[in-house]
């Protein structure tokens, strides 16, 4: 701290509240939630908390050292970020999670931008979302005595009842800092001490409640609303994350708008999104809007008037024909060259595609020697005219269908080639093979360009092999690992879009077989 | 074609599958965007206009000229020429009606021609087999997403002070890190379904 | 000969298209999910870049100035489509591996950027060398980024398991945010170890803000501090260039 004179312009406001004071107060207000979390979840939770805080402080210290900047860990903000992150983690995460999350939060979201006051995104939440995206499975594992079980929010999503009281107290199967009671004690304390702005925390809660009441499907049912308020980090987000000075707007009206946005977005993500982590994302999206809000939701300075702008309008601009001619010539030449190459390669390309399709047909209908056309199939395809097949399979098209015949000419199976445009990264084309009785032989992909490591895993035996030798129609998709009945297929974890597209394509192909080809030859 | 799926096309293009932060189209101009939100908004408006009309024209051209004549392989060239012409028109229009905006956009305006997002949308529309209305909405949604992305980034950059940022990170790296954090935030829209 | 080699060095390091000029970021970010993608995309881009530079350099005195951008685009788009058709027909296994990336080359700003900034002002031989240099730079950058992303996000490099089985890879790196992070990291490291790129030279000496995405084509014309000393009168012209550029926005003359 310098002890020289401080030159600044009026008005002056003396306050004893320094950054470290404020950070200290916030840390103090989180104490109840921390204590409850450790009591309920045991020493492992304490280890998570200590690791997170320790890594955060260490990262900031090391970063400042390398960048030759003065040490800032004394202001307590790094410790606060570490604690907030830890409290938002499941008590059963592997220990590398808090370490990596805290390091990312401090180094990338905060220090790279210049440290406290210079970041635009809430560091703790940035770290949390980084972890959610990187380690989806580990972050969503909430184990009770070593057995993975669902959180209250997951139960609600599945339509089951939850114990709101245990959510309120913090004894439910949720993140470490889930005790709404303890969090509210701390939060209201901060509000009374004027450390956080009521405009933000209450507009978040209000916006969320109103949205859930309007769109949640349960009207003003207090049990429903309370359950949602007590779960998924709503209270934590409202009092401790959204109110972060650096990433929230400056003006009162701006703060109100900001809080409402968070509440509404949080509700939208909660109802329509695919994960339970609605508030983490809604707050950081709102962080992105803060500069926008600050610029445009600002009270006008006293006596401010807009001055009129008068500009001379320049005249004319015309088209110049000669370069257009040159451009046309170039285009025509290019077009001719292209058509030349196209016609030259057309047949070869068609050959290739035919070969590839044939190859995949052979994979799914191994006993067939030849693939004969089917009159019924061709007629049906003509009627479809390349349009979408059916109405419940999304954007699927039947490409072709054949009857597999052996050397003697008797039917050994059927093949249907289906394309779905609903893949994550583009179209998926597969060949569906059935044997003579209509049992599914298997599927083989002729076109699959999904995300490596996720959608592309559809081509692995683990997923593809589920369709082998199954007398089922139609198939049903379940979450990864939950398939019990023979007509259920495990989705690829993390690739629901791809899995859905494939299942729809398969079912459409089966539909086509059932309605058109079966009982024909 | 339900109104639900039409809304999904717009929202999907703008937020769920954001053209810049998810599909990586239009990055060059995104990273070079100005630090002023107003200029970015003007550029975004120009892009919305160009992409929407280009999607419409490209859709018509493809459905009624290229596809029936079997000229699918010419689509890239034709689309690009349509886009170049549209940008030229926008330039002339702005020069006449609003010279201040024209000057503030500076070099960004002709750069829209080479903006991967514009051509990318036209080609994706063909690939997805959209009809005319779907093409226009998809183009509009994509362009809105682009505008949102550049305005938000401009806002973030307007708050950044070069001196606070460690030396090796100044310039491109910090903009990319900001883009990474924006991308993380937008992944929250990822699983939305209506 | 020296000039040819200089073009190679320029494309690889000094003016690496992805890491310095910030061109071609769209495909770079999208494709670099695996190291093998990086090589595939990089080499196909190199092929198209060399051809396009050659053609445009040969035609540089013929193409009228006002329509040069659309003309270049038509030429490049045709070259890419031709390449795609040829590979599809005669090298089907390569097409399987690269298939989707080839059309993406059309929207690769590098090709257009180099046509605008170099090929239309220099001889065919130098333009070809520039194409090779830039293509190599692109390939190297993409492969390194792809290897990093694959390693951190999947535990493998070129498909070979590198991380021990028990270590959980960080999935974010094969997703969009990871792309931005890895490239930010590579550029930051290049800056930190002091690789003297043209961009750094200009930032330090000429008051340009280092934002190459905006004026990549004008980069050639800005003198570095060293050049400034030997060409005193031109500095006035260089300072006038940005102001004049706002006027001749239709992509008028090159300087």
Structure description:
- The complex is a heterotrimer of chains A (521), B (194) and C (255).
- Chain A is α+β, with helices and mostly antiparallel strands and 521 residues long.
- Chain A has 2 domains: 19-296, Ammonium transporter fold (Orthogonal Bundle); 364-517, no CATH class.
- Chain A contains 18 helices and 9 strands.
- In chain A, strands 3-4-5-6-7 form a 5-stranded antiparallel beta sheet, sandwiched between helices.
- In chain A, helix 5 (123-134) crosses helix 14 (278-296) and helix 13 (252-272) runs antiparallel to helix 14 (278-296).
- Mean pLDDT of chain A is 81; it is low at 308-320.
- By secondary structure, chain B is mostly helical.
- In chain B, 60% of the residues are buried.
- The mean pLDDT of chain B is 82.
- Chain C has 255 residues and is mainly alpha-helical.
- Chain C has one domain (2-192).
- Chain C is 67% helix and 2% strand.
- A two-stranded antiparallel ribbon of chain C has the order 1-2.
- Classes of the chains: A alpha+beta (521), B mainly alpha (194), C mainly alpha (255).
- Chains in contact: A-B, A-C, B-C.
- Chains B and C meet through helix 2, helix 4, helix 7 and helix 9 of B and helix 2, helix 4, helix 9 and helix 11 of C.
Question: What are the main properties of this structure?
Answer:
A: alpha+beta, Ammonium transporter fold, 2 domains, two-stranded antiparallel sheet, 10% strand, C: 255 residues, mainly alpha, two-stranded antiparallel ribbon, 13 helices, 2% strand, disordered C terminus
In short:
The complex is a heterotrimer of chains A (521), B (194) and C (255). Chain B is mainly alpha-helical. Helices cover 72% and strands 0% of the residues of chain B.
Q: Percent of residues of chain A in beta strands?
A: 5-15%
What is the CATH architecture descriptor of the largest domain in chain A?
A: Orthogonal Bundle
Number of domains of chain C: 1
Write the element-wise H/E pattern of chain C from the N-terminal end onward: HHHHHHHHEEHHHHH
Helix/sheet category of chain C: mainly alpha
Share in helix of chain A: 40-55%
Order of adjacent strands in the largest pleated sheet of chain C: 1-2
Q: Multimeric state of these chains? A: heterotrimer
Tell me the Rg of chain A in angstroms: 31 Å
Low-confidence stretches of chain C: 216-222, 230-255
Mean pLDDT reading of chain C? 75
Morphology call of chain A: elongated
Taking the sheet with the most strands of chain A, its summary is:
5 strands, antiparallel
Main sheet specs of chain C = 2 strands, antiparallel
What share of the residues of chain C lie within helices?
Answer: 55-70%
Low-confidence stretches of chain A: 308-320
- Using the alpha-carbon principal axes, give the shape of chain C: globular
